[in-house]
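Need a sequence for this fold. Nothing fancy.
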């Protein structure tokens, strides 16, 4: 059984790259944004685009760029919509065989990019951008008024419910 096709696919074949840098700008259409929003659990994905550079190297292909996205996530505390604008650089190096001795010879510094297995003779830049978006989403989005909303609902803050809350009450003569 084959994997489902990515929601946002923009394939470039290695023979299209040649031996020089190729620049591309890609943008997700409405249907692709809706599908990606479902995949990543977003309320909405209003914009997703990227400016990319594909650079052939001796034993790999480097994809660098900047993704730009407008997302709306659910607040982890209240469920309210939390809008965010993301503008993030990324770098991904595609290698033919990650387990080969040649792949091990590629020198990477701590600030260098992620390594991915090259699938066939092509790079899916759309899926690369989608994965970069996922890595740049706030894992715990919180609405600005989340604390006030929770207090109104009777949820105690960590300060009020923590182990020092009882001591604070004793000090203030509440017990």
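Here you go.
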């Amino acid at each position: 059984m084959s994997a489902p096709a990515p929601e946002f696919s923009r394939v470039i074949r290695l023979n299209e790259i040649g031996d020089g840098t190729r620049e591309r700008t890609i943008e997700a259409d409405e249907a692709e944004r809706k599908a990606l929003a479902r995949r990543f659990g977003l309320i909405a994905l209003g914009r997703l685009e990227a400016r990319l550079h594909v650079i052939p190297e001796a034993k790999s292909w480097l994809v660098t760029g900047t993704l730009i996205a407008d997302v709306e996530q659910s607040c982890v505390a209240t469920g309210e919509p939390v809008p965010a604008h993301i503008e993030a650089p990324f770098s991904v190096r595609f290698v033919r065989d990650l387990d080969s001795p040649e792949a091990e010879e590629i020198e990477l510094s701590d600030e260098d990019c992620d390594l991915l297995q090259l699938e066939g003779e092509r790079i899916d830049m759309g899926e690369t951008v989608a994965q970069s978006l996922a890595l740049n989403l706030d894992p715990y989005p919180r609405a600005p008024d989340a604390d006030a909303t929770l207090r109104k609902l009777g949820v105690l803050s960590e300060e009020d419910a923590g182990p020092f809350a009882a001591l604070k009450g004793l000090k203030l003569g509440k017990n």
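For context: The chain has a mean pLDDT of 83.
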